[in-house]
């Protein structure tokens, strides 16, 4: 459910920070699935260790994505992903 | 213990409803600051679900890292890049009446797949014993642990370099 709402956010929203929020929702949805399977079906503690790594990767990509978004705002004064469409050649 | 089971189910459905409802607000709200605070509620609800699934270390890690780290970063970025005249929130290349049914289709497919697979539901295992997580993390997953540390270092340096104050 979280995965589908995250996909909807990434597809529909125009603000770049909102798209980042959608990506975090997708990662969290997958993490819940991992932990649920690790508890109920098979796998032991490995599911939770994998979720630790997912959280680490999410932190890295959120930090770098927000640095990029700040740079985009300084250059274009606009954060909509539709308006930033000039590639300076 | 019928009443115990009933309370367990009710609380689980309440927390799951909180998570899904907050995610819906994140998706559909017109004001993006409302979306950020609904994301906070979503993360707290997910930590509650981790507690239900006996993953207590993950619940605390989720609250500390996601709420106290990523969400603060997102709110900073929102406050630094916000424009007040932006009302139209949908992307012209994937408007809501195309993306909505597509996402409902994906969700229906996943629900069908989940309910039609014979899961081997055994005894509850994978109880999040912090000793066991630490042993496996330092023993079996040592390489991934070191690579994650290097990744964190690289991401930190990259983000600090990208967001530096440029001399004008």
Topology (SSEs and partners):
The complex is a heterodimer of chains A (89) and B (168).
Chain A lengths: L1 H11 L3 H25 L5 H31 L13
Helix pairs in contact in A: 1-2, 2-3
Chain B lengths: L1 H27 L3 H21 L3 H25 L15 H20 L14 H10 L2 H21 L6
Helix pairs in contact in B: 1-2, 2-3
Rg of chain B, nearest Å? 21 Å
Helix coverage percent of chain A: over 70%
CATH architecture heading of chain A:
Orthogonal Bundle
CATH class of chain A: Mainly Alpha
Task: Give the amount of beta strand of chain B, in percent.
Answer: under 5%
Q: Could you tell me the mean pLDDT of chain A? A: 80
* SSE pattern of chain A, N- to C-terminal: HHH
The total count of strands of chain A amounts to 0
Characterize the main sheet of chain A: none
* Unreliable stretches covering 5 or more consecutive residues of chain A: none
Q: In DSSP terms, counting alpha (H) and pi (I) runs of 4 or more, how many helices of chain B?
A: 6
Distance, first to last CA of chain B: 70 Å
Strand tally of chain B, please? 0
Summarize the structure in short:
The complex is a heterodimer of chains A (about 90) and B (about 170). Chain A is mostly helical. Chain A has three helices and no strands.
Q: Care to describe what's here?
A:
The complex is a heterodimer of chains A (89) and B (168). By secondary structure, chain A is mainly α. Chain A has a single domain, classed as Helix Hairpins (Orthogonal Bundle). Chain A has helices at residues 2-12, 16-40, 46-76. In chain A, α1 packs antiparallel against α2 and α2 runs antiparallel to α3. Chain A is elongated, with a radius of gyration of 16 Å. By secondary structure, chain B is mainly alpha-helical. Among the domains of chain B are: 8-83, Four Helix Bundle (Hemerythrin (Met), subunit A) (Up-down Bundle); 129-163. Helices cover 74% and strands 0% of the residues of chain B. Chain B has six helices and no strands. The longest helix of chain B is centred in the N-terminal third of the chain and has 27 residues, at 2-28. The chains are: A mainly alpha (89), B mainly alpha (168). Chains A and B meet through α1, α2 and α3 of A and α1, α2, α3, α4 and α5 of B.
């Amino acid at each position: 459910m979280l995965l589908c709402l995250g996909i909807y956010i990434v597809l529909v929203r125009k603000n770049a920070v909102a798209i980042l929020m959608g990506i975090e929702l997708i990662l969290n949805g997958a993490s819940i699935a991992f932990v649920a399977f690790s508890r109920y079906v098979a796998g032991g503690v490995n599911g939770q260790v994998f979720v630790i790594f997912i959280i680490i990767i999410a932190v890295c990509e959120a930090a770098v994505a927000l640095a990029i978004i700040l740079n985009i705002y300084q250059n274009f004064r606009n954060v909509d992903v539709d308006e930033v469409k000039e590639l300076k050649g | 213990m019928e009443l115990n089971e009933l309370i367990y189910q009710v609380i689980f459905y309440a927390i799951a409803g909180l998570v899904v409802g907050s995610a819906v607000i994140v998706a559909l709200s017109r004001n993006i600051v409302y979306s950020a605070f609904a994301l906070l509620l979503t993360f707290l609800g997910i930590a509650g679900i981790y507690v239900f699934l006996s993953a207590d270390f993950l619940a605390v890690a989720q609250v500390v890292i996601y709420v106290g780290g990523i969400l603060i970063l997102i709110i900073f970025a929102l406050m630094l890049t916000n424009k007040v005249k932006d009302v139209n929130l949908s992307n012209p290349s994937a408007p809501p009446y195309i993306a909505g049914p597509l996402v409902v289709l994906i969700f229906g497919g996943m629900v069908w797949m989940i309910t039609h697979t014979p899961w081997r539901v055994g005894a509850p295992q994978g109880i999040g014993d912090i000793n066991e997580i630490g042993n496996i993390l330092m023993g079996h997953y040592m390489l991934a642990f070191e690579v994650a540390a290097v990744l964190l270092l690289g991401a930190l340096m990259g983000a600090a370099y990208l967001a530096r104050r440029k001399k004008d």
